[in-house]
Write a structure and sequence with these properties.
binds magnesium ion; mainly beta; about 30% strand; about 260 residues
Length: about 260
């Protein structure tokens, strides 16, 4: 009797150690560190069949995540959108399934902070709920800024490190060019096929047909818990104290 109870208790402790991850550090990966690559010049013009999500003028294609009936509260000026951390995340009015997306972002030249607290934002390739729910392609200043590699710019946050570090200096415009294949679900809600993403960062391949394990999780391992269809694309107003990022020239081609 005692023996059996002890075995059961051991099994419970063992499975708790396996499955109940409780700290964000448990899913951080620090090595190997992606090699630094200096990007070349690339073309950023929208092709003729693209839907323009931001052309430098207004946020008409975007809404507030906190209240999607309200316009996006970030600032437009100098042909760019600048994050307003007091108003929270913003997302596209329209929902998307499979697509090619181009977006440009800039970390302010005077950026301060370290690690995840230095120019943190994020591109949620599909938003699966309010706040930070969704599949996050990380945006961060990793020009001489060390952090866990599956949390640096070009990572699928807490899942897949970028193949290389193609960051430009703070103050310079940087580009993401993305091919996104949304996950597919069976009629009973179970996963049919995972999301797949390819990402070029400043024209350099950093994610090559990467399979996603599920929507991003800050703590614990990602998995597909809930079926979803077409979803908005979302930009993150991260809660760190560093100076806010800007975005420009955002266009998409539905596939
Ligand atoms: Mg982020």
């Amino acid at each position: 009797m005692y023996k059996k109870t002890l075995a059961t208790a051991t099994a419970v402790v063992f499975s708790a150690a396996l499955f109940a991850q409780t700290k964000p550090e448990e899913t951080e990966v620090w090595e190997p560190v992606p090699t630094v690559v200096t990007p070349g010049k690339i073309n950023t013009d929208a092709p003729s069949d693209a839907i323009i999500l931001f052309d430098g003028k207004n946020l008409d294609q975007w809404v507030s995540v906190n209240d999607p009936s309200k316009p996006a509260g970030w600032k437009v000026g100098d042909k760019a959108i600048t994050v307003d951390k007091t108003t929270g995340n913003i997302q596209t009015k329209k929902s998307f399934t499979n697509y090619q997306l181009h977006i440009e972002w800039r970390v302010p030249k005077n950026i301060t902070g370290t690690g995840q607290g230095r120019g943190n934002s994020g591109l949620f390739l599909a938003s699966t709920g309010p706040g930070d729910e969704g599949y996050e392609l990380q945006i961060l200043d990793n020009y001489n800024n060390k952090t866990y590699v599956n949390g640096q710019a070009g990572s699928i946050y807490k899942q897949t490190a970028p193949l290389v570090n193609a960051n430009k200096k703070p103050g310079e415009w940087q580009t993401y060019d993305i091919a996104w294949t949304a996950p597919r679900f069976n009629s009973d809600g179970s996963l049919q096929s995972p999301a797949i993403v390819t990402v070029f960062f400043n024209g350099v391949l950093v994610q090559n047909n990467t399979e996603l394990k599920g929507p991003t999780k800050y703590i614990g391992k990602a998995s597909y818990e809930k079926a979803h269809g077409a979803s908005p694309i979302k930009l993150q107003a991260h809660g760190d104290k560093s100076e806010p990022l800007s975005f420009r020239n955002i266009w998409i081609r539905e596939l």
